């Protein structure tokens, strides 16, 4: 008998979310396989936080559907236990000590792994008696990450968790994130403005812009299917069937195709992840400043 496809991490069909008259997500179709570390990229206002809050069950769709690990988000206490969420600015309780956070986690989560939590707190040098309000930004991020991971979830979701950290603290946070993913055998979604973070840890990419998914897929596959054409004297002109122009620019274009570079007209070269993201964001009409911001 043929093996059944594994249950996807995220599966959206016609997913739409409106705030009054403003549409934050519009008719999103998305199927993300399990076991991936997903980078969610887009400019401010693209709908990234809305998508993640829907995935955590903090919001309800206006229309369409979203299933997370095969179920409606937050459908039950058991499903809630499968998802660990670190929101923007890595919120913690300022008046609680580090140890208080671990005690609270143990009370709220039936699958809580106290040994994992204490080990990780020790590894990153957090004092269990220290009030969270007196921790540095990097330390607060590590505490929030530890609390989310000690639930032993199947999916970890991060909404811009490291944007405010200095480079050293951000590097430490990302390294620990990947250690948790490996130790737990978990999937992860990381929303970030910092494309360097996405390149460092993610193997799957979603570009969200203008409330819609512009492109999604395995990073290596996306890079293999996109090329930069150098066309002397202006745009690329007529192209073979099966070649889609993503972004036309002076002297060439970024294109998507299943053809090998050797079969393309003009001189075809590889694209970087930043060039790919910028091409799709530009095509969606993102303002120039936000295009640059979204890729950093």
UniProtKB/TrEMBL annotation:
- The UniProt record lists the ABC transporter domain at 10-235
Going by the UniProt record, its keywords in alphabetical order are:
ATP-binding, Nucleotide-binding, Transport
Q: Which InterPro entries match?
A: AAA+_ATPase (IPR003593), ABC_transporter-like_ATP-bd (IPR003439), P-loop_NTPase (IPR027417)
Q: Name one GO molecular function term.
A: ATP binding
Keyword Nucleotide-binding included in the entry's annotation: yes
User: Per its UniProt entry, which superkingdom is the organism in?
Assistant: Bacteria
Gene3D superfamilies recorded: P-loop containing nucleotide triphosphate hydrolases
The answer to whether UniProt assigns keyword Nucleotide-binding to this entry is: yes
**What does the sequence similarity comment in the record state about its family?**
Belongs to the ABC transporter superfamily.
Q: What is this protein called?
A: ABC-2 type transport system ATP-binding protein
Q: What is the lineage of its organism?
A: Bacteria, Bacillati, Actinomycetota, Actinomycetes, Streptosporangiales
């Amino acid at each position: 008998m043929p093996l059944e496809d594994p249950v996807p991490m995220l599966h959206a069909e016609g997913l739409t979310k409106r705030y009054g008259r403003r549409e934050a997500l519009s008719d999103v179709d998305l199927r993300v396989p399990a076991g991936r570390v997903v980078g969610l990229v887009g400019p401010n206002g693209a709908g990234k936080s809305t998508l993640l809050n829907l995935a955590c069950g903090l919001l309800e769709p206006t229309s369409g559907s979203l299933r997370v690990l095969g179920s409606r988000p937050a459908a039950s206490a058991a499903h809630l236990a499968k998802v660990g969420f670190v929101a923007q600015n890595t919120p913690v309780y300022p008046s609680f000590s580090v140890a208080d956070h671990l005690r609270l986690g143990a009370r709220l989560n039936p699958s809580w792994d106290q040994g994992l939590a204490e080990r990780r707190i020790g590894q990153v040098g957090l004092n269990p008696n220290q009030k969270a309000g007196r921790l540095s930004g990097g330390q607060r991020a590590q505490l929030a990450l530890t609390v989310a991971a000690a639930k032993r979830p199947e999916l970890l979701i991060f909404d811009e968790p490291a944007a405010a950290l200095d480079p050293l603290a951000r590097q430490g946070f990302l390294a620990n994130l990947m250690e948790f993913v490996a130790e737990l055998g978990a999937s992860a979604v990381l929303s970030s403005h910092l494309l360097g973070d996405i390149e460092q840890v993610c193997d799957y990419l979603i570009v969200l812009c203008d409330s819609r998914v512009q492109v999604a897929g395995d990073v290596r596959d996306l890079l293999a299917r996109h090329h930069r054409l150098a066309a002397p004297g202006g745009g690329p002109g007529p192209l073979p069937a099966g070649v889609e122009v993503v972004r036309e620019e002076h002297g060439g274009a970024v294109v998507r195709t299943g053809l090998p570079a050797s079969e393309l007209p003009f001189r075809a070269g590889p694209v970087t992840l930043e060039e790919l993201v910028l091409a799709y964001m530009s095509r969606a009409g993102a303002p120039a400043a936000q295009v640059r911001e979204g890729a950093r």
